[in-house]
Amino acid sequence: MAVRPAVEAEGLVRTFGDVRAVDGIDLSVAPGEVFGFLGPNGAGKSTVVRMFTTLLRPTAGTATVGGHDVVSGSAAVRRTIGVALQDAAIDPLMTGQELIRLQSVLHGIPRAVARTRGEELLERVGLTAAAGRRVGTYSGGMRRRLDLAMALVHQPEILFLDEPTTGLDPTSRQALWEEVRRLNTEHGTTVFLTTQYLEEADQLADRIAIIDAGRLVREGTPEVLKASIGSPTLRIDVQPGSVEAARVVLEAFGSDRPAREGRVAIGLDGGAARVADAVRALDGAGVVVEHLELDAPSLDDVFAEATGRRLEGAGDES
Question: Is the pLDDT assigned to residue 315 strictly greater than 80?
Fold first, then answer.
């Protein structure tokens, strides 16, 4: 007997007037999977999540979560999921403890159970010491962790995290990653994670779908997606007036890849063994190499190959 997907979409569309924000998406997430939904700002990630979590009705197509249709079975979907949205509204005048208690009441959890579970969740996300403080005094990282705890109060089968680490410092980001891993490995929670951070998707996701302009452009495990690129990326910084000359020289060593201004990037055929040949050829053409790096294929390379540009959030990798 086939196992039903935890999350599934077929031909999913959402329009806002003349804007087609989500343009015919098909995807399937297995139970117990951490699924990474990767793409730049404005690609349609949050719109997809809002349809899966019943906050937006699809314009066309179908979507099911936990086996329930997001339109006809919206109440059942909401009982099945936990949601931590990027722009979640949290009352700054309430304490962390009060918000956890309120969330328990909304889910109909008995008071005794809610008290114990609330204490456990606050401890799990490292907020026990701050539980009695007003949320208005919390840092961004603390609010994110509280939001996660609130999403877990009713022990959901499926957890939706919409860009959960945007704006967090590296320490807070790592702490949240560890909690997501623990939820998945210890409790079998299915996690649907949207992100624009390459490292986050690479670190956490069993499988990734890349979305751009409302359409899925690639899907697979991080390893398979990176392996599909093949050659490592050679990136060379040259003087502004030499960019075009460098590009012409490097055409003989591999296919062009998107790069930031002042830099030329190619997929270097033959890998590291060809670096010295490429440098000698540039030198022979009078092109001065200011900086050089050779990187194994990355998810940014996958995105660039699929769309012709680098992903926002890729830092200085391009």
Answer: no
- Buried b / exposed e over 216-240, threshold 16 CB at 10 Å, is bbbbeebeebbeebebbbbbbbbee
| 213 φ, ψ (degrees, to nearest 5) | 50, 40
User: Which residues, 6+ apart, have CB-to-CB distance to 305 below 8 Å?
Assistant: 229, 257
Local structure of 17: helix, strand or coil: coil
CA 308 to CA 296: how far, in whole Å? 18
Which secondary structure element, helix H or strand E, spans residue 7, and what is its range?
strand 7-16
User: What is the Cα Rg of the chain in Å?
Assistant: 23
Contacts of 138 (CB under 8 A, 6+ apart): 96, 130, 146
pTM of the model: 0.80
CA dihedral sign, ordered 224, 228, 231, 234? negative
CA distance 296 to 286: 28
User: How far is residue 179's CA from residue 281's CA, in Å, rounded to a whole number?
Assistant: 50
CA distance 118 to 141: 19
Tokens of 43: 């690609």
Find residue 209's DSSP bridge partners: 37, 219
Q: Among residues 216, 261, 215, which one has the least CA distance to residue 235?
A: 261
Give the pLDDT confidence of 23-78 residue by residue, as tens digits.
999 999 999 999 999 988 888 999 999 999 999 999 999 999 999 999 999 999 99
